[in-house]
């Protein structure tokens, strides 16, 4: 059996195993539908992660937490727009997320850092964030602010710092003051330019485009992932893997 067939067989086995995982151990967020109701579906994320991510205070304060932790995580890694890592990396891992999403926060804190440390810093993988706006009105200015920070090479720093100071969804915490404090903490130098760009029609159009793209892929929750690489069949859709190990396996199969 060829290496390619072996990879496909392992992937099929993994998908079958994930389908049989107790639904009480998984959770994700469904796309907003109908009259604007938001439904939650239990899939792909261990409940313990969600509980840890949503515990503590309501967040959204201008007195930011974990600025030094985020600086250390991304030290020495190139950032361009909302891309993290070597532009020539053989594998690209796409995340479709909503900055208000508590499950995205959990991934940013507990799953992605190991991928960043082991794969991105080694130049093996490039991470690309794309907005998938599904939670509410505050998701739009939050996502726009991240894109504007990316134009100054601080996009992923903004994303990570926002998640680590995330407030209760749709509570109104995404204020200009909060977003500017995150921008400062992320190292955005030209705040006047950032403030101007985050309100531009071009950025809003970009978020609409990536959200539509996620829907066309059939994604119904955030975060959802896709991957490209030399041994991938174009852009392969991964959904919401439940662990960093599952993501690492997908990276290896695509490499």
Written overview of the protein:
This protein is an alpha+beta fold and 255 residues long. The chain has one domain (3-254): Glutaredoxin. Helices cover 47% and strands 15% of the residues. The chain has eleven helices and eight strands. Strands 3-4-6-5-7-8 form a six-stranded mixed beta sheet. A two-stranded antiparallel ribbon has the order 1-2. α6 (139-150) packs antiparallel against α7 and α7 (155-164) crosses α8. The protein is globular and about 50 Å long. The protein starts with a helix and ends with a helix. Mean pLDDT is 85; it is low at 17-56.
CATH C-level class is: Alpha Beta
Helix content: 40-55%
Order of strands across the main sheet: 3-4-6-5-7-8
Number of separate domains: 1
Shape: globular
Q: What is the assigned CATH homologous superfamily?
A: Glutaredoxin
- What's the helix count? 11
What is the annotated CATH architecture?
A: 3-Layer(aba) Sandwich
Main sheet specs: 6 strands, mixed
Strand residue percentage: 5-15%
CATH-assigned fold name: Glutaredoxin
Give the total of beta strands: 8
Distance between the termini: 18 Å
H/E element sequence: HEEHHEEEHHEHHHHHEEH
Kindly provide the radius of gyration, computed on alpha-carbon positions and rounded to a whole number of angstroms.
18 Å
> In terms of per-residue confidence, which ranges show pLDDT below 50 for 5 or more consecutive residues?
17-56
Task: Return the structural class.
Answer: alpha+beta
Mean pLDDT metric: 85
Oligomer: single chain
């Amino acid at each position: 059996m060829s290496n390619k067939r072996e990879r496909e067989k392992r992937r099929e086995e993994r998908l079958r195993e994930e389908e049989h995982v107790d639904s009480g151990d998984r959770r994700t967020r469904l796309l907003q539908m109908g009259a604007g109701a938001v439904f939650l579906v239990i899939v792909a994320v261990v409940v313990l992660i969600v509980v840890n991510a949503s515990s503590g205070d309501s967040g959204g304060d201008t007195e930011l937490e974990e600025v030094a932790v985020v600086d250390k995580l991304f030290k020495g890694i190139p950032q361009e727009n909302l891309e993290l890592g070597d532009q020539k990396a053989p594998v690209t891992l796409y995340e479709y997320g909503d900055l208000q999403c508590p499950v995205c926060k959990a991934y940013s804190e507990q799953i992605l850092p190991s991928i960043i440390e082991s794969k991105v810093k080694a130049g093996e993988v490039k991470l690309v964030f794309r907005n998938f706006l599904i939670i509410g009105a505050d998701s739009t200015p939050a996502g726009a602010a991240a894109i504007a920070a990316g134009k100054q090479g601080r996009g992923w720093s903004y994303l990570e710092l926002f998640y680590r100071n995330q407030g209760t969804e749709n509570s109104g915490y995404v204020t200009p003051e909060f977003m500017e404090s995150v921008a400062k903490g992320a190292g955005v130098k030209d705040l006047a330019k950032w403030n101007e760009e985050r309100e531009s029609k071009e950025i809003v159009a970009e978020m609409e485009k990536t959200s539509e793209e996620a829907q066309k892929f059939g994604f119904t929750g955030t975060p959802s992932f896709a991957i490209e690489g030399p041994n991938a069949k174009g852009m392969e859709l991964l959904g919401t893997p439940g662990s960093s190990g599952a993501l690492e396996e997908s990276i290896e199969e695509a490499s």
